[in-house]
Amino acid sequence: MLQLVMNISVGCMKGLCSRGAFISRLILKKKKKKVCARVMRAEMKNGTQVMANENGNPGKVSISKFSHLLASQDRDFLLSPTGSQVKVCDLEGKVVGLLFAANWYPPCRGFTQVLVGIYEELKSSVPQFEIVYVSSDEDLDAFNSFYGSMPWLAIPFSDLETKKSLSRKYDVEGIPCLILLQPDEGKEDDATVRDGVELIYRYGVQAYPFSHERLLQLRQEDRVKLENQTLVNLLGNQHRDYVLSHSHTGLKQVPVASLVGKTIGLYFSAEWCVPCAKFTPKLISVYEKIKQELAAKGEEDFEVVLISSDRDQASFDSYYSTMPWLSLPFGDPEIKNLVRHFNVQGIPWLVIIGPDGKTITIHGRSLINLYQENAYPFTNAKVEELEKQLEEEAKALPTLVFHEGHRHDLNLVSDGNGGGPFICCVCDEQGSSWAYQCLQCGYEVHPKCVRAVDRHNNNVLVENFTQSTTPGKGL
Ligand SMILES: [Zn+2]
Ligand SMILES: [Zn+2]
């Protein structure tokens, strides 16, 4: 059943359905009571003292806190990467992360890779930290192969019951999920941090010891950083006050100070990233059009800076050579800080910084997709103006179309009437506001990507009708 619950939840994480999470939560809640009773009965039978029930008895948590969670009636140990067994009671006094993941889901593999780095860095300085893998792998071979990449402990694959009850206890709705437990006495549930995945991505080792106090402190620091944000402290540091640019003789240095007062796009991207390969040419074309329009007015107030997450210098060099704009040096330490500062959750990602050095939007990619060069200078006022224009243009669109690539009718929807952020099934890019949506199966496309056909003979009626009615703009 765990497998099933995870599968449903993963669908939800991809935005495929919102009902699955609800259903899986229902299943978890219904069975919770029974498990509590069973665990407690088993403990009494074993003659162990029941100190904390599953809901965390406030006021008294015993030294066997982790035993209640991680051991079973006939197992008091966890697996370790060396193959030896580690007693559950050895965890007492430590901050423990429960990693719910499975090898069959790529985001789990990606997160595990990041977590291994954080774990090794932490273990070298803090002995009071441990991670326990709670697997949703489909079989023992899959478990063995995935666990083989992890340097921490694990619940044996065969112990379905413990894995299920942990998943229920912490309402695990999707994977990867990292639950962080504090060793403190008396406030088990209050102190539990459930958004470990986000915290690891955002703060890395800095998030340790994952207490609410530490997290408050980090969020406070974030606020201060945002308030004091300037282009110079974003892009430069005490060792480097320049970014790179192409020149006839290779790369040259451009002082960060010379960019102050301009609108700057920070483009997070990498050569290995498939969606980036689609978005980069689009951004180049938009960049060149904006630069041309500005040059015609005698201005040069716009720049883009590549923030690369390429894996080696050679890929960076080859990728950057295709781009007409500036770049941070490959592997620069500021890259990590910028990823955290702007909460970059996936690439391609485009942040727009205004002439005052403050963030205008972290959703530059959607604005480019929706409005191309017309989005410049990306301000709220400009976006509102474009939205109104879009609204007007949408009035001219048919409310129902039959699209060449789909077997059901598609309805015109907008933010207010059934629409919302989506991924276009034709061009794979993000969209928001107006869309053509299939009410039967959720298929959704940009109005500009629709190819309306006659339902009966499949003749293309109008090729790309929005662009033909509003040349150069389009929805
Ligand atoms: Zn599209
Ligand atoms: Zn459909």
Give the tags:
21 strands, 5-stranded mixed sheet, Glutaredoxin, 3 domains, binds zinc ion, disordered N terminus, 16 helices, single chain, 4-stranded mixed sheet, 475 residues, alpha+beta, 39% helix, globular, disordered C terminus
Question: How would you explain this protein's 3D organization?
Answer:
The structure is a single chain. The chain has 475 residues and is an alpha+beta fold. It folds into 3 domains: 2-221, Glutaredoxin, CATH 3.40.30; 231-378, Glutaredoxin (3-Layer(aba) Sandwich); 391-469, no CATH class. The chain contains 16 helices and 21 strands. It has helices at residues 2-13, 19-45, 65-70, 106-125, 140-147, 160-169, 188-191, 196-203, 212-227, 231-235, 274-296, 313-320, 334-341, 364-371, 380-395, 465-469, and strands at 77-79, 85-87, 95-101, 129-135, 153-154, 177-181, 242-247, 250-255, 263-269, 302-308, 326-327, 349-353, 359-361, 400-402, 409-413, 422-423, 430-431, 435-437, 444-445, 452-453, 460-462. The strands form 7 sheets. A 5-stranded mixed β-sheet has the order 11-10-9-12-13, sandwiched between helices. It has a 4-stranded mixed β-sheet with strand order 5-4-3-6, with helices on both faces. Strands 14-15-18-19 form a 4-stranded antiparallel β-sheet, with no helix packed on it. A hairpin with a 2-residue loop joins strand 7 and strand 8 (250-255). Helix 1 (2-13) runs antiparallel to helix 2 and helix 2 crosses helix 6. The protein is globular. The chain binds zinc ion (2 copies). One zinc ion binds at residues 406, 408, 438, 440-441, 443.
